[in-house]
UniProtKB/TrEMBL annotation:
<dbReference type="GO" id="GO:0055085">
    <property type="term" value="P:transmembrane transport"/>
</dbReference>
<dbReference type="InterPro" id="IPR001626">
    <property type="entry name" value="ABC_TroCD"/>
</dbReference>
<feature type="transmembrane region" description="Helical">
    <location>
        <begin position="180"/>
        <end position="197"/>
    </location>
</feature>
<feature type="transmembrane region" description="Helical">
    <location>
        <begin position="255"/>
        <end position="271"/>
    </location>
</feature>
<dbReference type="InterPro" id="IPR037294">
    <property type="entry name" value="ABC_BtuC-like"/>
</dbReference>
<dbReference type="GO" id="GO:0043190">
    <property type="term" value="C:ATP-binding cassette (ABC) transporter complex"/>
</dbReference>
<feature type="transmembrane region" description="Helical">
    <location>
        <begin position="141"/>
        <end position="159"/>
    </location>
</feature>
<feature type="transmembrane region" description="Helical">
    <location>
        <begin position="14"/>
        <end position="34"/>
    </location>
</feature>
<dbReference type="Pfam" id="PF00950">
    <property type="entry name" value="ABC-3"/>
</dbReference>
<protein>
    <submittedName>
        <fullName>Zinc transport system permease protein</fullName>
    </submittedName>
</protein>
<keyword id="KW-0813">Transport</keyword>
<dbReference type="GO" id="GO:0010043">
    <property type="term" value="P:response to zinc ion"/>
</dbReference>
<keyword id="KW-0472">Membrane</keyword>
<feature type="transmembrane region" description="Helical">
    <location>
        <begin position="98"/>
        <end position="121"/>
    </location>
</feature>
<keyword id="KW-0812">Transmembrane</keyword>
<feature type="transmembrane region" description="Helical">
    <location>
        <begin position="228"/>
        <end position="249"/>
    </location>
</feature>
<keyword id="KW-1133">Transmembrane helix</keyword>
Length: 280
């Protein structure tokens, strides 16, 4: 039954893309959660929606960007939004959390304007909102593969610096780490991952894939590296099983993946309580 899934190219694209996203989303999600920036994924996902809506509007009403994947403009908006977040965090030095709702509100506002100009939702936009197995193209797969290579390179080369910045930024700066540039590199990488995840999970649920596996891993892991490892494992389980279930039951893949991630989180919490009960 499982091998029958891969007889079509769009299913191959969906599963390979999902496996890559299941790796990079929780991987960056660990650093996001530790830095207490969990809501940043929500903000950037709505900014990405604005970019996708703008691309669809320009294509539909003005005939521009014909044949160009709307995801590219969504990525552009997401990267610009991430840079604005970092800039606002500097402006509001003592109230840095304000940067996220400001960009979130702006993204929603711009997105709604472009959706109304395009005379409402269409099928293409719904696939970005909630994810779609059939909508994942081979170009989407190559795009996500490129972003995966970028993410793994950034984490591998800058792991020590990112670790220090996540837990003790002041100490990191004292040791000579260029915190400002690292923040920009990290936030841009997060923006690209969020934009790339939309075909599978959908804009409305992408932040869940970056936080729920991490939340589950934090309940059972005994160290930071183990948290990263378990987050990726939980993310991959959610994506792979979620795609299989959504295909055979004809469900939205994004919702199925997130529900499985919630189930894993509940299981991790219950397991932790049972473990404590036995140890006592």
């Amino acid at each position: 039954m499982i091998t029958g899934l891969f007889q079509y190219e769009f299913l191959q694209n969906a599963f390979l893309t999902g496996i890559l996203i299941g790796l990079i989303a929780p991987l960056l999600g660990v650093f996001i959660v530790v830095r207490r920036l969990s809501l940043i994924a929500d903000a950037l996902s709505h900014v990405t929606l604005a970019g996708i809506a703008a691309s669809l509007f320009l294509e539909k009403k003005l005939g521009l960007f014909q044949g160009v994947n709307p995801l590219y403009m969504g990525m552009t908006f997401s990267v610009v939004g991430s840079l604005f977040i970092e800039r606002l965090r500097i402006v509001y030095k003592h109230y840095q959390e304000l940067a996220i709702p400001i960009i979130l509100s702006g993204g929603i506002g711009i997105g709604v304007i472009f959706i109304s100009l395009a005379e409402g939702f269409n099928t293409d936009l719904f696939t970005y909102l909630f994810g779609s197995v059939s909508a994942v193209s081979r170009n989407d797969l190559w795009t996500v593969l490129g972003i995966t290579i970028l993410v793994l390179s950034v984490v591998f080369l800058l792991y020590k610096e990112l670790f220090l910045l996540s837990f003790d930024e002041e100490h990191a700066v004292v040791t000579g780490i260029r915190a400002k540039w690292l923040h920009f590199i990290f936030i841009i990488t997060v923006a690209l991952v969020i934009a790339a995840s939309m075909r599978i999970v959908g804009i409305m649920l992408v932040s869940s894939l970056m936080t729920l596996p991490v939340a589950a891993a934090m309940r059972v892991a005994k160290g930071f590296k183990q948290t990263i490892f378990l987050s990726v494992i939980f993310g991959e389980i959610s994506v792979i099983i979620g795609l299989i279930v959504s295909y055979y039951l004809d469900l939205a893949p994004g919702g199925t993946i997130v529900v499985l991630a919630v189930v894993i989180l509940i299981g991790a919490i219950m397991w932790k309580k049972l473990w404590r009960g036995r140890s006592q």
